[in-house]
Amino acid sequence: MLAALYAVLPLVWLVTSATKSVGDFSTTGAFEFGQFNLGANLSALFSQDGGVFLAWIRNSLLYAGLGAVLGSLICAACGYAIAKLDFPGRRALFAVTLAGVLVPTTALALPLYLLASQLEVVGTFWAVFIPLLTNPFGVYLARVYAEAAVPGEVLEAARTDGAGELRTFFTIALPMMRPGLVTVFLFQFVGIWNNFFLPLVMLTDPKLFPMSLGLYQWSTRVTQFPQYNPLVITGSLLAVLPLVVAFVLLHRQWRSGLAAGSVK
């Protein structure tokens, strides 16, 4: 119950605070509703700075949605190859992948920036999007799930019938890996949606910011301009909603994918 309260109470605070005006923040308690001002807050949120928040929503959906789909497919292909294909250096490749899980993402920011600078993509959509397509932890999960969920006999039967490796992967292995793929997708989606440091390093144009970075920029103005306070809180509430929806819609397959192999 304590852990549940620790997770839920910030969301409750967001809901109550998003309904308050600037004056209500100093006259009401943290979990009290003030004069219902949610409509005005939403209107101000979408009109502030020329409606840039709509661009932040679009960017976050592109980064997280498209990045999670493509990244999950890449992770599934890599995990399947390591688990089911016999090629030289397979174990060494998996060891390197595990080592990549241990490297914090902030440690990679400077090397990624230098690479993006050489490719002349700093300050563009691609400087943030391309690095998000790789995830060593996703490859590890896909490898574990492919090992447990894809029988080798089925793959041998497909090859005997003349199916190539790509067709075997897309038509046979990938459907069997679907619960594990959902788990990888959720980890990718949440990680990219909450990604902050990489856009902070790569981007300078506010129109390319994701919501996490854009709301942070607004939050730095709260001390001088209190009118930004309800905007930041209302925007944070909207930023949380897609994560809640994704977990509610996919939680059954996510749980089964996360527990794959636990009873084997």
Task: Describe the protein's architecture and organization.
The protein is elongated and about 70 Å long. With 264 residues, it is mainly α. 71% of the residues lie in helices and 0% in strands. The longest helix is centred in the first third of the chain and has 33 residues, at 52-84.
Query: Whole-number average pLDDT?
Result: 87
Percentage of residues in DSSP E strands: under 5%
Distance between the termini: 31 Å
Low-pLDDT ranges: none
Q: Approximately how much helix is present in the residues?
A: over 70%
Describe this protein with a few key phrases.
single chain, 264 residues, mainly alpha, 14 helices, elongated
Task: Give a topology summary.
Blueprint: H1 2-17, H2 24-27, H3 38-47, H4 52-84, H5 90-102, H6 109-118, H7 125-129, H8 136-149, H9 152-160, H10 165-176, H11 178-193, H12 197-202, H13 211-219, H14 228-258
Structure in a nutshell:
The relative contact order is 0.15.
